[in-house]
Design a protein that fits this description.
The protein has helices spanning 17-31, 80-93, 109-116, 153-162, 170-185, 190-194, 199-212, 221-237, 246-254, 301-311, 328-338, 353-362, 378-386, 396-401, 416-428, 431-439, 446-465, and strands at residues 2-8, 35-42, 52-57, 60-66, 97-100, 121-124, 240-243, 263-265, 287-292, 316-321, 344-347, 365-368, 390-393, 410-411. The protein is of the alpha/beta class. It has 3 domains: 2-151 and 220-269 and 447-465, Rossmann fold (3-Layer(aba) Sandwich), CATH 3.40.50; 170-212, no CATH class; 287-439, Glycogen Phosphorylase B (Rossmann fold), CATH 3.40.50. An 8-stranded mixed beta sheet has the order 3-4-2-1-5-6-7-8, with helices on both faces. It has a 6-stranded parallel beta sheet with strand order 11-10-9-12-13-14, with helices on both faces. Helix 3 runs parallel beside helix 8 and helix 4 packs across helix 8. The two termini are 19 Å apart.
Amino acid sequence: MKILYVIHDFLPRHRAGVQIYVSRLAKAIQSRGHRAWIFYTREDPLMPAYNLSWSKYQGLNLAGVQRPWVSSFEKTWHDTRMNEVFIRVLDRVKPELVHIHHLQHHSMGYVKIARSRHVPVVITLHDYYMLCPSPTGGQLFNYTGKACPGPTLDACATCLSGSPGSQGSLFSVLASKFFGLAEKVSFGVWPEIIERGPLKKLTFTMRKQVITSRRLADVTQKQVYSRMTGARAAVRNASILIAPSRHMKRKAINMKLVRARRILQMPYGFPVVSERMSRQVQAGGELKILFIGTYTRYKAPHILVEAANRLAHPRLKIRMFGNQRVDPGYVMELESKKKGNPGIEILGELKSAREVYKAMAWADLLVVPSTWEENWPLVIGEAFSSGLPVAASNIGGLRELLKNGRYGPLFRPGSATHLAATLKSFLDHPEKISRLSSNLPMPLSITRDCTDHLNLYRRLISRHANC
């Protein structure tokens, strides 16, 4: 079989849960004698928009397209030029099935294009992107910093028009005009010119400002309706949807995105760890806390910092790992909050599975303080694999993964006070660590996950061949 995977960003530049999972699944697929391609968007400040290049990464075939710096809300979900690039990829790869893992920075039109060629399409819902029209992600997390109960025309138009970056600074507007003009008249020559000399750093700064502060003022309810309609059309045209968690499956059904018979629950698979570590904290010893995730407000590592500051306990040690480039302002805020607390380390992202498991070998407890309704965070499966207990916000798929507290304590989302009380309970009763560690389930293996996906692919390809 030839499978084309579609995803926003990819390794090694962008390392997050979805990218790691798709890489593992594609490698497992190829180990069975099949062929896999990854079609992803990239962010290179010195490349013209829509530039398509082919490469390899750790044995995987990659097709990377330079994402455009959008000038309108419509282009965040429907882009005719991205559709044209997708057609070029289909022409070269000739896949028997397309598996979409994320359409952020792509175009909803991909699904209809693939189906017009009688190619089955699978969509995995890793977050709420098919429901949430925010161009910065799919967390159902509004600009005021609160979880959104669900999309409505009025609420979405207000959120999109009222977000802090929606009006755009004069700098970002001028930068936007400059790049738009340059890409129209230079035919890709200007990046080579600007790459030389001191303009390179300024160019990168301007590019980042444009994408993070893009003017999206006055988004109307009509525009939001078009986006919702486009997303639902993509879902209708898909052959089947996959939800990694029961929570995500229920959410998609309850919000009328998809009918129950057209969505499967298939949990993520993980590499098999040869030996689980036993966890034991001595009375009076250090309690070592770990956070792994992107430094963003909805992942909420600031809640962990605030909880640690409330405790101010000399035996509490915290190491935080994450991508510091996504929101540098938020990282500065974290650094400011942790001042005066030498027990907190704010570190960069972990670059490999080996580094992740090394960090987990150091820790006694993983904390997942997210304030958005998480789906199925890979870091929890990795913690289960290594025998590391987890404490998490009592929200979304986190509650499901921890079996309502059976596999680890749940605390109120956004409450530093409640998290501090949770951490204090482990300081006072360290024997709870070993008890939780010995009770953790072993997650599904990537080998079994690969088998399940291949069986699904075969059924869909056979069904379409007989139509």
